[in-house]
Amino acid sequence: MTLRLAQPADVEALHALHAQAFEAPWPAAEIERLMHIMGGFAVLAEADGPQGFILTRTVADEAEILTLAVAPDFRRQGLGRALVEAAAQEAARRGARSFFLEVAEDNPAALALYESTDFQAVGLRRAYYARPGAKPADALVLRRPLNSRGG
Ligand SMILES: CC(C)(COP(=O)(O)OP(=O)(O)OC[C@H]1O[C@@H](n2cnc3c(N)ncnc32)[C@H](O)[C@@H]1OP(=O)(O)O)[C@@H](O)C(=O)NCCC(=O)NCCS
Fold first, then answer.
1. Ligand 1 atom at minimal distance to the Cα of residue 83
2. Using CB atoms within 10 A of its CB, is residue 62 exposed (0-12), middle (13-18) or buried (19+)?
């Protein structure tokens, strides 16, 4: 598996990965827009083909994970952790000193991944995620400090 910064030509691959990971996938145009906003970047994990990606935004000394997806066939092999660490390093290289994200409180896999990569809860957004036919889910706001090497 290799990790590299995603390029404009990767947008369809990122969209396909997102669609495998989320019930309401973002349109390819939205992923492309977020890759190109100021400070936006994506890291792609691939072997024979795309396996997962993380989309991140860095503004001044803060970075934010916008989305993270690993294809179902490649989960529990360390890709999610590797993508978080690669994004942390790149964000730190760009000057970020804090890494933030929002995660649904009913997503145990993501919560476990972020706990294992040293994020800590710093806030709660009530009823943040719509759940068709069910109560909206709260979001936890997590933060991890970054040093100049991303750690
Ligand atoms: C969350 C997600 C990105 C994790 O990717 P992954 O490649 O499977 O994660 P990793 O293999 O790197 O797991 C790292 C650690 O996270 C935890 N973890 C990951 N998935 C888990 C699960 N299903 N159950 C419990 N713990 C889990 C474990 O501590 C794991 O370490 P271990 O395998 O040594 O025990 C993946 O499940 C996914 O794409 N889910 C759908 C989209 C999503 O929820 N994205 C996050 C939105 S905030």
1. 12
2. middle
- What does the alpha-carbon distance between residue 2 and residue 47 come to, in Å, rounded to a whole number? 6
| Domain spans of the chain, in order of start | 2-145
Question: Kind and range of the H or E element at 5?
Answer: strand 2-5
pLDDT of residue 125: 97
Q: Measured from the CA of 71, which atom of ligand 1 is nearest?
A: 39
Amino acid at 79: L
Ligand 1 touching residue 76 (CB < 6 A) = yes
How do residues 9-27 score in pLDDT, each as one tens digit?
A: 999 999 999 999 999 999 9
Signed CA dihedral, 35, 64, 87, 94: sign only? positive
pTM of the model: 0.97
Strand order across the 2-5 sheet: 2-5, 40-46, 50-59, 62-70, 98-104, 134-145, 120-131
DSSP-derived secondary structure letter, 9:
G
The yes/no answer on whether domain 2-145 falls in CATH 3.40.50.720 is: no
C-alpha to C-alpha distances, 102 to 9, 66, 81, 120, 149, nearest whole angstrom: 27, 8, 16, 11, 23
